[in-house]
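Bug #2210: token dump truncated for Neutral metalloproteinase?
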Amino acid sequence: EWEAVRNGTGHTVYSGTVDLTTTQSGSSYTLTDGARGGHRTYNLNRGTSGTGTLFSGPDDVWGNGSPSNLESAAADAHYGAALTWDYYKNVHGRSGIRGDGVAAYSRVHYGNNYVNAFWSDSCFCMTYGDGANNANPLTSIDVAAHEMTHGLTSHTAGLVYSGESGGLNEATSDIFGATVEFYANNSSDVGDYLIGEEINIRGDGTPLRYMDKPSRDGSSKDSWYSGIGSIDVHYSSGPANHFFYLLSEGSGTKTVNGVTYDSPTSDGLPVTGIGRAKAEKIWFRALTTKFTSTTNYAGARTGTLAAAGELYGTDSAEYRAVQDAWAGVNVGS
Ligand code: ASN
Ligand code: ZN
Ligand code: CA
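Reproduced locally. Full output below:
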């Protein structure tokens, strides 16, 4: 049977109406992205194993914006995976998680009232729960990019998911979760240095994590200390998230896309930001060519300095900003 790449329409839960790349096979359409390594989005329909069923239908319109329509979260997941693919390809020159042009796949509607999303190496796939009361699927752009980035980290540095390397692994997913959201330039979900601000995971509308001052969440650390490797990796990520914010935007108060941040430094010295476009290049180069499975905070400093030196020179403002931003989170001097 013949197949063709099509341009469908998604009515997402969090990102408004978006274009989706789909496939037409005879008289039916599926959420198969033939332009991005064949990424597919499957419906687990509250199951917790296997792939469920590939989303398919008689027209090329997906969801209605409400989470009660099972196609809506699928549209978010399909869109988030496409954005993340495009970001790595167009900004960093990498074709898919393994760099081989082959896509992962996505599964939505995992379990009942399941309040999490996750990456699995074993299936090479992203999985999304529907949140409390199945009313807030964990499928926003930043969460989708966060989960897909766990796949990238696994296939590059391989940062072990515990201790300081675990915090760096988590931070890498938050960093690129944020940069993909900026890259999307979606008016319904504007770019920010917050993670999970769309999904109401706490029930009071506040974000899951804050990169300007990670301690705003009540648990994450703003700066490195000996012993940070003993706390949950979603909290030991704080200093690296904070580093990335300082390197991009600088210390103090700043408003970006209508959100106001106030980023402190542990040494009280100011940091001048170099812009997100340079900061993301430095982190990606460090992740893919400097970090190893056991890289800790000291090693992340060394690795990002090496990356900045290669990209901009060791006598550059960018190199000095990397030094200053790490000093601002109590790493190195
Ligand atoms: N959503 C979580 C994460 O990506 C799942 C986990 O803790 N493994 O970090
Ligand atoms: Zn994670
Ligand atoms: Ca966000």
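Output looks complete on our side. The chain is about 35% helix and 20% strand. Marking as cannot-reproduce; reopen if the truncation happens again.
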